[in-house]
Structure formats: structure tokens, C-alpha cells
Amino acid sequence: MTTVDTGTAEANEVLAVVSRNWWVLLFVGLVSIVVGIFCVFQPETAIKTLALLFAIWLVVSGLWQFVRGFSTGLGGVTRALLIITGVLSVLIGFYALRAWWETDSALIAGWILAIFIGIGFLFRGFADLFMGIERKGEAGRGWQIFSGIVIIIGGFVVLTVPMSIVALAWVVGIWLIVIGIFELIGAFMVRKAVA
What we know:
mainly alpha; 195 residues; single chain; 7 helices
């Protein structure tokens, strides 16, 4: 009697779906590189734009979380967390919007954005690093570990110097360029794997 490893079958299915759409990885990589180059060469414009978009996102996502907190079928803790995080997101978003409109340099909005980006970099960096460490003997393991380390360093830089708006834009730009390059490499690796 033959047994089928469902984990391997599912992994092959996912690879087949991704490989048919390898161009999506290529597109995301190119967009990341272009936005990254813009951030590096136009840091003040980039950070003001990012701060505004981020403030709007905080308000919209906060309202959505707040409304979700009143939906049926939620436990008390989940409901409370959704309502609290929704209210906090809206308040921080409005504060960032007000700061963006009232100040020419948008330092407060940029500072709030810097903290969120720094924390996001750390989560992504540690995830990449640990996934790379666990992938012993697999292709691309070294790149994933290197990517994780670079992103972690970027996260620490952003969190330790959050008021340096230009440095933040440069870090974001460099990070996007690095991620874009990895996406391009991944797209061609996926395409080659099915060819």
C-alpha cells in the first residue's frame, strides 16, 4: 500500500500555482526597486508622501477594526482588542494627519511612521533569518539569511534614529531595492524550476 505525503503534495501544488504566475514576483520586484530608487534620490518628498499615506491607512484600518469589534461571533478578548486597537489607530492616524497638515516638514507623522516601519522591519527580518536558518540544504538559504540580517539592521537604524527623516527614507529605499532584487531572483528561480 502506497502512502502519499500530503505536505509534499500541497507544497508541489503551491509551487505550481506560483510558477504559473512568476511574472507577479517579477512585477513586485520591479515596483519595489523603482519605489526604492525614488526614496533614495527624493527622500524628503518620499517620506512626506509615505507619512500621509500611512496616516490615512491608520485611520481607515482603525475604523475597520473598530467596526469589526462589534460583529457577532467574537469572544470578549478579541472584541476588546479589536475595539481598543481600532480606537488607538484612529487617534494616532488623526494625530499624524494633523501633524502632517500643520507642519511643513511633517516630523511627527514621519516619526510615527518611522516607529511602525522599524518594528515591521524587525518582524520581517527575524522571520526571514529564522526561516533561512531552518532551511538547511535548500537553495536560496544564504540569500534569505543575508536578507534577514540586512532588514534587522535597517529596523534597528530606523528605531534608534527615528527623527532622521532623510535616513529613514534612505533605509526604506535601500530596503525596497534589496527586497526588489530578491523578488526578481525569486521570480527567475521559480520560472526556471518549472521550465
